[in-house]
Amino acid sequence: MDLNLKDKVVIITGGAAGIGRTTAQRFEQEGARVVVWDLPAVDVTKSDAVQRASDDVIARHGRIDVLVNNAGILRDAQLVKWKDGNVVSTMDDATFDSVINVNLKGVFICARTVVPHMIKAGGGVILNASSVVGLYGNFGQTNYAATKAGVISFTKTWSRELGKYNIRVNAVAPGFIATEMIKQMPPKALDAMVAKTPLGRMGEPEDVANAYVWLASDAAKFVTGAVLSVDGGVVVGT
Ligand code: NAD
Fold it and tell me: What domains does the chain contain, in order, with CATH numbers?
């Protein structure tokens, strides 16, 4: 299968760790020119920093073929934690806003910044990191699950708006993938998820990286507006 990714200019947000780092390596194996946008140099929540980073990519490479909106954070808390007739804690505004800013607004800012370059060049691909929790919600993840549902909405909206410019937009919904982010979750919650996963294990970053590479490639040239689950079947197991 010819993936036709050689010399393609691929931006990966949050590409310094976890799934993003493995995705950067996979695109490099295919001969792509990979640019990582990660902290502290590029904060996806800051539109001026993203604009400068985008200008820099255009100055160095002349175009942007693929944007992988992978950067994301978790800040879990229950909406209202209740014990013995009292409120013990709530999800505070800062906790809510921080996750919305990175996982949702950051995706919006990066896409808005690169799309004009893709239109000028005659096309491109945008890939958004969703999650299985964006499909079915999750205990303690009011903020995170909302962002992951939100990027599915971005994906469908942008695929409608941008198809006429030959820009494809797709989302990947990983299940539980063994990265630093996931290690922040309580082991009990992880064990419960593995128990519900038909393939009986957590995923590896390569599993998700391979999905991004395929979706970015010419092999997926008629795929847009899709949400690809890479989850060992956890959604059907839930
Ligand atoms: P990770 O914590 O290992 O890596 C996230 C990367 O994003 C880090 O390099 C971090 O520095 C970067 N980042 C955070 N805030 C940023 C900002 N403001 N600007 C730029 N970069 C920033 O996470 P991961 O597990 O590799 O997850 C990657 C993506 O996949 C996330 O969007 C996550 O929500 C999603 N996802 C992960 C899993 C999983 O099981 N690991 C499951 C579903 C979805």
Answer: 9-229 (3.40.50.720)
